[in-house]
UniProtKB/TrEMBL annotation:
The keyword Transferase does not apply. This is Homospermidine synthase-like protein. The keyword Secreted does not apply. GO terms for molecular function: deoxyhypusine synthase activity. Belongs to the deoxyhypusine synthase family. It comes from Marsdenia glabra. Keywords: NAD. GO terms for cellular component: cytoplasm. PANTHER family: DEOXYHYPUSINE SYNTHASE.
Length: 92
């Protein structure tokens, strides 16, 4: 059983992209977490779904990311916390 969070999947994408034009690349290089609670809503969700037939056992824990995101905003000072919201289909 493999337990991942959306931010861990995104960090892995940043590592594997290896493209300096990608914000995910730079987030990975600088150990900046990128949170996306709706990671499974769209193409990546479809890929994860089909992957689960070939290699069952992958679990994406969205709640763990929500905990981390909320703890970071609660515990960090205002100079160390920022957010960029793209889209608007999910409640923030």
């Amino acid at each position: 059983k493999a337990l991942w969070t959306p931010s861990k999947v995104i960090a892995r994408l940043g590592k594997e992209i290896n493209d300096e034009n990608s914000y995910l690349y730079w987030a990975y290089q600088n150990e900046i977490p990128v949170y996306c609670p709706a990671l499974t809503d769209g193409s990546i969700g479809d890929l994860l779904y089909f992957h689960s037939f070939c290699k069952p056992g992958l679990v994406i824990d969205i709640v763990q990311d929500i905990r981390k995101m909320n703890d970071e905003t609660r515990l960090a000072g205002p100079q160390k916390t920022g957010i960029i919201i793209l889209g608007g289909g999910l409640p923030k």
